[in-house]
């Protein structure tokens, strides 16, 4: 059984794989995961299935599919970590941390695979990135952000990037 920190790391890494699918980072993520697993072509094919499953228009509920794929990769990473001796487990955990840093690395704000924003009765909701003061010149990236719905006078809902 894994310690909580490794389970959390596996969950974050699974989310990172699902987040990276279809982005410019995908090929590097794909290669890193295949190398980490040591399963070569079999793992590359599994990663390709993940990428295809997350292509826009392949499912009516893209968010649920992204969550499903992230959970599948979490389970794979947990299984891998459990199978290793302590020293190899430490090295694999370091590789997963590096993968996370690579996927989330940005000089600005990032939002990926967010939920739905619903604002009612003058409220405000954002699914994505809301930056105060124009973001201070920093870049921002948002992809696969959820739907936004505003109902009622003065309501505001945004999916993507907004400067508050």
Structure description:
The chain is of the alpha/beta class and 164 residues long. It has 2 domains: 4-104, no CATH class; 109-163, no CATH class. It is built from 5 helices and 6 strands. The chain has helices at 4-20, 26-37, 40-53, 62-82, 86-104; strands spanning 109-112, 117-120, 124-131, 140-143, 148-151, 156-163. The strands form 3 sheets. Strands 1-4 form a two-stranded parallel ribbon. A two-stranded parallel ribbon has the order 2-5. Helix 1 (4-20) packs across helix 4, helix 2 runs antiparallel to helix 3 and helix 2 (26-37) runs antiparallel to helix 5. The radius of gyration is 18 Å and the shape is elongated.
Low-confidence spans: pLDDT under 50, at least 5 residues? Answer: none
The portion of residues assigned to helices is: 40-55%
Which structural class do you get from the secondary structure elements?
alpha/beta
Task: Report the span from N to C terminus.
Answer: 45 Å
Specify the biggest β-sheet.
2 strands, parallel
From the spread of the alpha carbons, the general shape counts as elongated
Rounded mean pLDDT is 85
Number of strands: 6
Main β-sheet, spatial strand arrangement: 1-4
Beta content: 15-25%
Provide the number of structural domains.
2
Tell me the Rg in angstroms: 18 Å
Our count of helices gives 5
Listing every helix as H and every strand as E from the N terminus to the C terminus, the arrangement reads HHHHHEEEEEE
């Amino acid at each position: 059984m894994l310690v909580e920190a490794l389970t959390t790391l596996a969950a974050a890494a699974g989310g990172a794989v699902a987040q990276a699918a279809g982005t410019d980072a995908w090929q590097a993520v794909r290669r890193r995961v295949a190398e980490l697993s040591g399963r070569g072509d079999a793992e590359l094919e599994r990663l390709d299935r993940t990428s295809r499953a997350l292509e826009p228009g392949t499912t009516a509920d893209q968010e649920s599919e992204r969550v499903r794929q992230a959970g599948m990769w979490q389970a794979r990473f947990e299984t891998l970590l459990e199978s290793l001796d302590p020293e190899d487990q430490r090295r694999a955990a370091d590789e997963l941390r590096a993968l996370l840093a690579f996927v989330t690395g940005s000089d600005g704000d990032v939002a990926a695979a967010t939920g739905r924003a619903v604002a009612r009765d003058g409220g405000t909701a954002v699914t994505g990135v809301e930056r105060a003061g124009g973001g201070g010149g920093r870049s921002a990236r948002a992809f696969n952000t959820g739907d936004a719905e505003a109902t009622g006078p003065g309501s505001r809902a945004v999916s993507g990037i907004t400067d508050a």
